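Lab notebook, bench 4. Still working through the backlog of constructs that have no structural model yet. Next entry is a single chain of 159 residues. Request: give me the structure tokens for it.
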Amino acid sequence: MNTEKVFYKNNREVNPKEVKENSVIPHLYMHEKGAFFYRIQKGKKASKSKRVLLRLASKDISSGISEIEERKLYKEDDSKAPKKKVEEMKFWYGTAMKLTEALSCFSWGGFSGLRLINCFLVGEMKLDGRNLYFNPHWVHSHSERDIVLKLRGFIERKI
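Model written out:
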């Protein structure tokens, strides 16, 4: 999380150590105790705007995205194209699920407990320790077979 201040709905400041942005799905934050939050911007002008976290009742990511749509929380967002943020969240969630499904095909212990990180800077995928950086557009546009072949390449390099 960057150095700007972020507030809860009732204008209480959030301790940045307690709330972290989801590494796969942007605009979605998670409290260390498990609660999900949706980040919106209040105020149109950059100098007067502030970030606000809206608490979600959902206990998982997919139902959290659905809750944002059902409660129309994006309408409270003063940033540009707030509805597009929700569409992006659904897209990134879909690619993460596609990648997770491909990873579940492997019994290799090196893939257990991987942290998925959404990163447009990598061309396809990059395995760095316990982190798997992936380009969501690459994952979305390729078949599961292509993804599995790319993941298999990581195993061959490790052995």
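Notes after review: The first strand starts at residue 6 and ends at 8. Residues 6-158 form one domain. Flag for follow-up if needed.
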